[in-house]
């Protein structure tokens, strides 16, 4: 697969888990996807482990119908991003269109605020288990899996399993 029109946007902010951003983004680029790094502004940000990330577009400028998929990496960024209506609206619209959404570690906080987890099988860092359960999700302690259009991953150590599930979902479609 090498169609550069297949845009996958990563939603990032200060404190994003660098490994969940870089390791997943690089894997998708290897598969031929166009990776967009989207943030609230275009200033370079520092990931949780100190790596610099340069956004190339604004979250507010993304349109769900123009995206092939979204990825919500973890770290401290999801707790910041979930406070913005444009973030939650975008995630909800992408989900409503049945497009793939990759959610790993604390990325589930955004999914909760976008109200897309009720009745879904989910996982993430143990730190958000209660949040997911309180939002009506089912908690499953597995490295990675797919539930409909949502691909879930637990933590950094599970990135290989998450990448396998995400690439499989992106290649097989969302419906």
Protein traits:
175 residues; alpha/beta; Rossmann fold; 7-stranded mixed beta sheet; two-stranded antiparallel sheet; 6 helices; globular
Report what the structure shows.
- This protein is an alpha/beta fold and 175 residues long.
- The chain has a single domain (7-172), classed as Rossmann fold (3-Layer(aba) Sandwich), CATH 3.40.50.
- Helix content is 32%, strand content 22%.
- The protein has 6 helices and 11 strands.
- It has helices at 18-30, 77-81, 85-96, 108-113, 129-134, 159-172, and strands at 7-11, 34-39, 45-46, 52-53, 57-58, 69-72, 100-104, 121-122, 138-139, 144-147, 150-153.
- The strands form 3 sheets. The protein has a 7-stranded mixed beta sheet with strand order 5-2-1-6-7-11-10, sandwiched between helices. Strands 3-4 form a two-stranded antiparallel sheet.
- Helix 1 packs across helix 6.
- The protein is globular, with a radius of gyration of 14 Å.
- 49% of the residues are buried.
- The mean pLDDT is 95.
């Amino acid at each position: 697969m090498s169609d550069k029109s297949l845009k996958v946007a990563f939603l990032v902010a200060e404190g994003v888990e660098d490994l969940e951003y870089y390791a997943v983004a690089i894997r998708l680029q290897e598969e031929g996807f166009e990776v967009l790094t989207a943030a609230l502004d275009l200033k370079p940000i520092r990931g949780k482990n100190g790596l610099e990330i340069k956004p190339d577009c604004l979250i507010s400028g993304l349109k769900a119908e123009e995206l092939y998929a979204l990825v919500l990496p973890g770290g401290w960024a999801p707790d910041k991003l979930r406070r913005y209506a444009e973030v939650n609206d975008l995630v909800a619209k992408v989900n409503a269109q049945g497009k793939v959404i990759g959610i790993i570690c604390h990325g589930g906080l955004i999914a909760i605020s976008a109200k897309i987890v009720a009745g879904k099988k989910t996982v993430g860092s143990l730190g958000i288990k209660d949040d997911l359960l309180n939002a009506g999700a089912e908690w499953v302690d597995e490295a990675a899996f797919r539930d409909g259009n949502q691909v879930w991953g637990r933590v950094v150590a599970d990135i290989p399993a998450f990448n396998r599930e995400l690439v499989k979902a992106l290649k097989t479609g969302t419906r």
